[in-house]
Design brief:
By secondary structure, the protein is mostly helical. It has a single domain (8-212), classed as P-loop containing nucleotide triphosphate hydrolases (Rossmann fold, 3-Layer(aba) Sandwich). It contains nine helices and six strands, in the order αβαααβαβαββααβα. The chain has helices spanning 8-19, 26-36, 39-49, 56-67, 85-98, 112-120, 160-173, 175-183, 196-212; strands at 23-25, 77-79, 105-109, 122-124, 131-133, 187-191. Strands 1-2 form a two-stranded parallel ribbon. Strands 3-6 form a two-stranded parallel ribbon. The chain is globular, with a radius of gyration of 18 Å. The two termini are 22 Å apart.
Length: 213
């Protein structure tokens, strides 16, 4: 878990490679369900085409379906779920059905100013989807993609006003999820500042420690 721009998606992918466990992202699950044309996928499509959020109960069914696959038998990394207290309870039921338990709920932390800096400096290539950053990964030529030469753009949701709105939504909706896992003694807070390799090492070491207890 963590605020927008804190790097949870990046770290989830890295940790999945280290552990040999699938990275289960809600965004990926929704896309795969729709593409697969399953009964669940058709239900998802109906909500997405109507511009509505997928209900928590349906998300729970999708999560359970994904976590039931063979590659998740030895473990999994959830990214983007649960986001609300209702989803915490849904996940409890899914884990009980699967006979699985959480090693921990990991939350990456970074100051708001750093998150705003990261996201406002991000630039995307519309041609090949390469990602750059004005500070940490600038293109060789200003405003031009190194890979394909297309003009780089800033995503509409990477402006400071939108970012601060997203952070307010995060505080209101997702912070209670972190508090719920803290009360259970399962929340692990990880410093999200520094080089990505350093953050990955912190996550890996913390997971090893929790498993050794």
């Amino acid at each position: 878990m963590g605020a927008p721009g804190v790097g949870k998606g990046t770290q989830a992918v890295r940790l999945a490679m280290i552990l040999g466990a699938p990275h289960i992202s809600t965004g990926d699950i929704l896309r795969e369900a729709v593409k697969g044309g399953t009964d669940l996928g058709r239900k998802v499509r109906s909500f997405l085409e109507a511009g509505k959020l997928v209900p928590d109960g349906l998300m729970g069914d999708l999560i359970q379906d994904r976590m039931s696959k063979d590659d998740a038998g030895a473990g999994f990394i959830l990214d983007g779920f649960p986001r609300t207290l209702d989803q915490v309870h849904i996940l409890d039921g899914v884990l009980e059905n699967l006979g699985a338990v959480l090693d921990g709920a990991y939350i990456l932390a970074a100051p708001e100013g750093e998150i705003v800096r990261r996201l406002t400096g991000r630039r995307i290539c519309p041609g090949c989807n390469a990602v750059f950053h004005l500070d940490s990964r600038p293109p060789k030529a200003p405003g031009v993609c190194d890979e394909c030469g297309s003009a780089l753009v800033q995503r509409p949701d990477d402006t400071e006003a939108v970012i601060r709105d997203r952070l307010e939504v995060y505080e209101a909706q997702t912070r209670p999820v972190a508090d719920a896992y803290r009360q259970r003694g399962q929340l692990v807070e990880i410093d999200g500042l520094g080089d990505p390799d350093e953050i990955t090492a912190r996550l890996e070491n913390s997971l090893k420690e929790s498993r050794a207890q």
